[in-house]
Amino acid sequence: MPSTGGIQPSRVVVVDIDEARLSQAKKLLPVELAAAKGIELVYVNTCGMENPTAKTACANGRCGFR
């Protein structure tokens, strides 16, 4: 995993509109590797989503009221 400067995120959401790029990212940084370090890693393809901003916010745990 890349250095985070001492900050340990609990969740990382990777967003793209290209499935090939997301697939490459999944190969380079598998969900299992992140989980072993205590990080929930979520990959989201927003291509064709009606409201990608809202769906991405939900993937990041910010659903509903802010």
Give a topology summary:
Layout: E1 11-16, H1 19-28, H2 31-36, E2 40-45, H3 52-59
Structure summarized in a few sentences:
The protein is of the alpha+beta class. The protein contains three helices and two strands. A two-stranded parallel sheet has the order 1-2.
Walk me through what this model shows.
The structure is a single chain. This protein has helices at residues 19-28, 31-36, 52-59; strands spanning 11-16, 40-45. It is an alpha+beta fold. The protein has one domain (11-59). Strands 1-2 form a two-stranded parallel ribbon. The longest helix has 10 residues, at 19-28.
Keyword list:
36% helix, 66 residues, two-stranded parallel sheet, 3 helices, globular, alpha+beta, 2 strands
Shape: globular
Main beta-sheet strand count, sense and barrel state:
2 strands, parallel
Extended strand count: 2
Report low-confidence residues grouped into runs of 5 or more: none
Distance between the termini: 30 Å
Structural class: alpha+beta
Beta-strand content bin: 15-25%
- What's the order of the H and E elements? EHHEH
Strand order of the largest sheet: 1-2
Query: What fraction, in percent, of the residue positions are helical?
Result: 25-40%
How many individual domains? 1
- How confident overall, as mean pLDDT? 86
